[in-house]
Amino acid sequence: MLALQYVRSVPAYAFVKATGGRADVATSELSMLHLGDVEEPELPGRAWVRVRPNLSGICGSDTSAITGHASLYLDPLTSYPFVPGHEVVGELEDGTRVVVEPALGCHVRGVEPECPRCAEGRPGLCENVTEGSIGVGLQTGYCASTGGGWGEVLVAHESQLHAVPAGLSDEAAVLVEPFACCIHAALRGAAGPDDVVVVLGAGTIGLLTVAAVRRFTPPKRLIAVAKHPAQREHARRLGADAVIGPDEVFQRIRFATQARRLDGPDRPLLLGGADMTFECTGTARGLNEAARFTRAGGRVVAVGMPGEEKVDWGPIWQRELTVMGAYAYGVEPGGRRTFDLALEAAPGLELERLTGPCFGLSEYRDAIAYALEAGRLSAVKVAFDLRDLRV
Amino acid sequence: MGRPGAVIEIDRNTPPVLFHYGEGVRLERLPLGSRVVYAPDPIEPVAHPERAIRRALAHPVEDDPLKALLRPDMRLTIAFDDLSLPLPPMAQPDVRQLVLEEVIEMAAEAGVEDVHLVAANSLHRRMTEDEIRHIVGDRIFSTFYPDHLYNHDAEDPEGNVLIGTTSRGEEVTLSKRAAESDLLVYVNLTFVPMDGGHKSLATGLGSYRSVRAHHTVDTLLHSRSYFHPPDSALHHSCIRQGQLIEDTVRCFHIETSVNNHSFPAIANFMQKRETDWTPADQAAFLAVKQLTDLAPADVKRAVFHSMRAPYGLTAVHAGQVDAVHDRILETVNRQMLVEVEGQTDIVTIGIPYLGPYNVNAIMNPVLVVCMGLGYLFNTYRGRPVVREGGVVILSHPCRNEFDSVQHPSYVDFYDEVLSDTLNPAEIETRYEKCFAEDPWYRQLYRRSHAYHGVHPFYAWYWAAHAMQHVGDVIVVGGERETVHHLGFKCATTLEDALEMAEQTVGRYPSVTHLRLPPLFVADVK
After folding, report:
1. Which domain holds residue A294?
2. pLDDT of A236-283, one tens digit each?
3. Is A221 on the interface with B (CB under 8 A)?
4. Which of B403, B404, B410, B415 to mutate to test the interface with A (most CBs of A within 10 A)?
5. I want to staple A201 with a disulfide (CB 3.0 to 4.6 A). Which of A206, B243, B300, B401 is the partner?
6. Residues of A in contact with B443 (CB under 8 A)
7. Rounded to whole angstroms, what are the CA distances from B80 to B63, B119, B153, B205, B313?
8. Under an 8 A CB cutoff, do B416 and A252 touch?
9. ipTM over 0.85
10. Which tens digit of pLDDT belongs to each residue from B37-52?
11. Assigned domain for B175 exists
C-alpha cells in the first residue's frame, strides 16, 4: 500500500534538527519521512478490523516529530518504523464511516487485568503501552503494528471505532479526535462560571479548546489569544468573548481581570490575572507568559504538545500555580466517553470550516510545508485526502 | 492694537493655507470661495503684571482685600490650575507664579505659617517635579515642595470629603485640606472661555464622585457650546457645585487671562495669516516642514513639546468667584471672538500636536477625537460653524500610538471599548464604572503620572455633541485602520476628503477652514 512512513534514523534526525526543522529538509530524501510502498499492517487479533482513511489530519505532534522538535521522552514509547496519522476519518470494509480513537490502552492490546489508569477509563495514560499483541506505542499513528492515517490502510481494534453520524462530513469528522482532546482538557481544567479563562494559541487545538470550554465549562469570560486574522474570526465564532493578539496579552488580560501589571526586565507580570489558562501553543513563550498572567493559585493546563522547553519556574513556584497536562481522552467524569461527547457536540460547530486545504499523499512535501505555516496561510487543519486512492 | 479676527474668502491670489497635522504641518489649497477663519491678533498685555496683580489683590471685586483675610493662626490653602492650560505652556515666568508669589508674600507678612499649595489637577495626571517647578517658579518650589506643595489626589480616601449635594442631586467632594482651611485661594489662568470660575474649584479639587455629576454624555450634549458658559449645562452644574463650596469654605478667587501669543519666534508663522508671511516666515515654515517630514518621531515630539509660548497677561481680577469670572470672560472674549456669518457644509480643522491632555506625550487617537470633535468643534457660540448633517474634515496622522505612562486606561478604552461600540451613551452606561474603579488605574493615577481610569471616557464624551451633529467625519492623512476603528473615514489628501464629503452634503458645498491655533471662538450669526 502507499503510505508515508517515519523511519527512526539518528543521522537523519540530527540533520533535520541541525537545520532547524525547515520544511524542505524535513521532507527531503535525507529526512525520517519517506513515501513508498509498504506492507499493509496485519490484523493483530479477532477484534481488529481494517480501516481505509478518507481524510487524515496533520497534527502539531506530527510536524514536531517530522521536524525534530518532539520531546525525546516519547521515543521509548514509540515503535518504528510507523505510519503517522492519528486524526482519522475512514471507512470499514462494509462502508461504515468511522473515526478512530487512537489511544492504545490495555483493552486494545488484550492485556488483562487492565492497568489502574485504564481501569479508570484513561487509556491515554496506559502503563502497558509496551505490552500485548501490538508493538510499543501510545497511539495509532505512533505504533509500527497498526499503521496510521497517512497510509491507505490501518488496523484498529473495534473498541477504537466510533460511527460518524450521517450529517457530519469527513472534513468535520477528521477533527473529532483533536476535539476530544480539547474536551478532555476543558473537563480537566473544570473552569467555573465565575472564572476568567484564557486560551493561549489558536491553531487547531486552541480553537477547539475554545469550543470545548464554551460548551462544557462555560466561564464568566473566555479570552482567546490568536495571532492571525482567520484564527481570530474562528475563535470568535467558536465562542470566545474576546480575541486578543499575542503582543497584547498582558494589557488585555489585566483589563479583563482588573489585575495590577508590573513590568519586569524580560516580560511583564500581573498581580491577579486569569483564573485558568489553557496553553495551546506548546512553546516556552506560551508557558512562561501563562505563568505570569494566571493568578496566584490558578491553573495552567498544557494542551498543546510541548517539547523540551526552557521554562522559568519562578512564577509557578511563587504563585503556587497548578500546572496540569491534558493528554488524549477516555471516559470523563459522569461516565461518558470523550469521543461520544465530541461526536455529539461536533455537528453544531461547523468544524468543516476549519479543515483544508487537503493534499494527496504524493503531495506530502507541500502538505507538511503548508501545515507548518498554516496560521499565516489562514488555514487551521491541513489534511491528507486519501479518498482518491480508492478509485 | 492688533487686528480683530477675520474671515477671508479664498480667491485665485490666496496663498495655500496652513493646516496643522499633529507633529507636522501642511499647506493646502482650498477650493475657490472657501472661507478661512483666523484668530484675532494678540491683544496688548498689561504693562506691569506684578503691579496689576497687587492692585487686584488690594482692590478685589465684591470681596475684602486679601490682606484683610489673612491672620497668623489660620490654615491657608492655595490651589492653582495644572499644566492642561495654557497650550503650549507659558514661557517662564508663568502668570500663576507671579500671582502665587504675591499671595505667599502677603501671607508671610501677615504671619501665616500653615500654608499648602495644591495643584488642582482633578482627574488629570500628577505633574512631575519639573512641571510643577515650571508653573510655580524656583523660589516657591524650593520652599514648599514636596510637603506643602503637591498634586491633588482625587483618589485618596482620607484626603477628600463629601461636603454636600446640590439642589439637582450633584454630589460635591473637595480636598479635605481645602475644606478644612480657613481660607481657600484659587489661582486661575483662564485660557479659553470654558476655563475658570466655579468650574476650577468644583473639578480641580474634586474627585470622580463630584466630577461624574457633569462630565456626562447628557450634560455635554446640552452644552452648546461649553465655550459659551451661559449655554453650557456643564457650567451650570459646576456653578451649583461651586456655590456649595463657597458656602462651606471661605474662598478668595484670583483669575488671570493671557493673550493668544501662542508661538515663539521660530514658529511665528503659525501665529500669522499666510498673506502676512515674510520671507523669514516662509523659510521657518520650510525648515519646520523639513524637520517634521524627515526627523524621527521622538525628535519631532521633543522639539514641539519644548516650545514655550510668550503669552502676555491681559487681565487679573480677584474676589468673589462669579464677579471675578465675569470680568475675566470679557477680556477672554475680546481676545477670542470672531464673527462668522452663517454655517457651512464642510469645516476643515488641522489638529495640532498638543491638546490639554497630552502635554509631553503623544496625542493618541482618542485624544485626536477629543481635540478635533471635542474642543475645536466646540469653539463656537450661537451655532456650530458646520451645519447639522455637515462634514468635519480633520488633518492628523492619527496613529495607533499611546503613551503608556500617561494614558494606560486610554489603551484599554481604545482596544476594549471602542471595539465594541462607539456610542457615547452606551459606552457611559456599560463601561465607565468599570474603568473608574479599576484598582490598577487608580494606583497609576496616584503613584505614577497616569490620567485617571475614567479620563478617556470624558475625552470621548467631549465629542458627543459633534458626533450627534455632523453627518460625517473624515481624517486626512490618518492611519487607515485607526481612523476606521474610531468610526471615521480616511482620506489621503484634502482633495479626496472634499470629494468624499460631497457624497454627504451634495455638490458644490460651502467650505470653512478653522485656522487654529491660535485659538478663537467663532461667534456664528
Report:
1. 179-325
2. 999 999 999 999 999 999 999 999 999 989 999 999 999 999 999 999
3. no
4. B415
5. A206
6. 260
7. 19, 5, 14, 10, 16
8. yes
9. no
10. 999 999 999 999 999 9
11. yes
